[in-house]
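User: Predict the structure for this protein chain, please.
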Amino acid sequence: MVDYYNLTNEYPMRELSLHILDLVQNSITAGADEISIMVAENIADNLLVIEIKDNGCGMTEKQLQKAGNPFYTTRKTRNVGFGISLFKETAKRCDGKLEIKSESGKGTTVYVELVHDHVNLPPMGNMAETIQILVMGNPEINFIYAHKFNNNTFKFDSREYKSELFSGENINYETLAKIKNEIISGLRQND
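Assistant: Here is the predicted structure, written as structure tokens:
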């Protein structure tokens, strides 16, 4: 069981992709119709950067000040919001930082910087499945995912699949498999 009062003793999110999924869910809840996810791995500088940017409703200055508090959330479905605080703790464990920029009515950007070879850095996880799940569950939202590895960049844009994603009113699972395979292939080329 996770002790939410002492988050330094547990790793509730064992993969970075789960942190990303959680933060993107915040963007979806904020009404964003375009969400950008950027992962940049720079081995020479020993740096891993994750940036999630949306065009949702944004936060007021007061909300922004409370955003890292796990016992504060704007959601009506629960009384706590651990996503940002958990990612902030992961960043701290990896000698990194988490910053949030937001403006009411204009969207939010979450920027996370981590030491790439830090012993506490969780694995990336399965980004292909993460993006696939996001597209499948939210086909009306444009997801842009870029993964940079040193000087190579792979980019995925869900708008390229909008017309193929549905056959009638049903989701086209062949297209979902195609999305996942494209991301896996693109990430392999970055290695």
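Confidence is low (pLDDT under 50) at residues 1-11.
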